[in-house]
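Late entry, evening session. Most of the bench is empty. Finally got around to the prediction I had been postponing all week. Sequence below, unchanged from the version circulated by S.P.
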Amino acid sequence: MTKKDFTQEYFRFNEQDAIDYAIDVLDFFDDSTSLACVEIGDGNLNYIFKVYDQVSGKSVIIKQAGPIARISADIKLSPDRNRIESEILKMQYELTGGGVPEVYNYDSNMNCTAMEDLSDHVILRTGLLEYQIYPALAKQLAKFMVETLLPTSDVVMPHKEKKEAVKNFINPELCEISEDLVFTEPYYDCERNDMLAPTRDYVQQSIWNDAELKLAVAKLKFNFMTNTESLIHGDLHSGSIFAKSDSTKVIDPEFAFYGPAGYDVGNVLAHFILSSLNAKYTEEAPKEFSEWIDVTLGETLDSFIELYEQEWDDLVTDEMAKVKGFKEVYLANLLRDTASFAGTEIIRRIVGLAHVVDITSLPEEQRLLAEKEALEIGKKLIKESQNFTSGQDYRALFN
């Protein structure tokens, strides 16, 4: 079969194309005779290939962006998201000392990025559904968030440099997906919403008819759209995190842009809550895991707060940000955002287009109970966000 020309017009790879690309463009392997490839992506947007040498085990990941989302042909996407992702991975690699995969190559023609293979880690959602315990997870995730959110904010960065970065990482297509799926569609009878019938009845009564809730979410939507606080990951959930017992790596920052820092922190906490609900409503979860995920939910936020306050004192450069009391005001706003955005993330995973297997894998009777509790937790986090200032406040949601 004739090899395709990777210098010509964009085309979507198959597995053989990925092998040829690794040989001809990346020049990644010394010997091409024993190469194999498997498509490993099962996400909503992209195509991900692992090319590996069956003898030496050497491997590379090739992630290619298409012009439409895998989840829905109605969602059109700019391939520039691949450029944004590759640049942010390089930046985060430096900021965190390797907390993300190393990028080897970015190709604007084929809209693909070649990067480090993390096959020695497990996708966190998979591990949590198998009730695996990761002792270092809370502190490592907290460290990642502090090291990526605080240094990219106005209190640390030179202001002109920060404004240039805001311009460079404008990400309208991916932001629009969040604006629709997180902050708009779950709050009215949108045809793309996807629910079991009893859940829909509950949503009609408790979400769509709750004027106070909808007003709060309207404020959150425009906070998300206009608050350029930090360079956020934008989709930091358990499917975007790789973990093993002593290591945590964050992947897939293609939704990244300058937005409210609490959105990332809230997303992490929301998915720990969803994992806790999975454990609560299944008999398969060991008691040890249920206790660990509960502790991890609280420890992640407490570790984030502690390290954020420490790093603030070391990193802040703006003179007015050093004014006595400002750190406390700034962090209080971030924590209110964290709770609110955790709530919107939980609600959208129950009501909207993109569900999580933590909930959908439950037997229907238990799923309905878990969904109702999730929606109530989401509402509480949004409407009472000012009350969630510590890890214990989140752990108390289940008491």
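Two things to note before I forget:
The chain has two domains: 15-115, 122-398.
Residues 142 and 304 are 5 Å apart (CA to CA).
Will write this up properly tomorrow.
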